[in-house]
Amino acid sequence: VIYIACAYATVYLIYAKFKATYDGNHDTFRVEFLVVPVGGLAFLVNHDFSPLEILWTFSIYLESVAILPQLFMISKTGEAETITTHYLFFLGLYRALYLINWIWRFYFESFFDMIAIVAGIVQTILYCDFFYLYVTK
Q: What gap in Å lies between CA 128 and CA 130, rounded to an integer?
């Protein structure tokens, strides 16, 4: 419930309160370059070829590369709003909690999900680039 409430609050803030901060001139990243390959990968590499499993796998893969448009915008403009950098920092911190969860589940429940771990590693690598910029600026 807390996760869903936070997700709705984030969407509300993006589309209502901070709508004026959107820079359409610099936002040239083509989202279909992420969605189409991720969709294809979800069909090819999943645990079970069922609609819900493919959708779950799609969401895991898409989450792992969802930072790319923001990183593209930051690298293109060379700057970002303070609220944006803090938001991205806490998204990365959220991802770090996922890593702790995987370690915990592996050692105490003997649970190992290769799809989630590989996608998480990809996302962590992408966030490392942002964390470097965040700390140095």
A: 5
pLDDT per position as a tens digit, 30-63: 899 999 999 999 999 999 999 999 999 999 999 8
Taking the complete model, does pTM exceed 0.90, yes or no? no
Report the Cα 99 to chain-centroid distance in Å: 14
Whole-number CA gyration radius for the chain = 16
* Contact call for residues 46 and 104 (beta carbons, < 8 A): no
User: Which run of H or E residues covers position 83?
Assistant: helix 82-109
Burial of 32 (0-12, 13-18, 19+ CB in 10 A): exposed
- Rounded Cα distance between 35 and 62, Å, is 7
19, amino acid identity: K
- First and final C-alpha spacing in the chain: 35
What is the rounded distance in angstroms from the CA atom of residue 115 to the CA atom of residue 112?
9
Contact 99, 123 (CB under 8 A): no
Residue type, 25: N
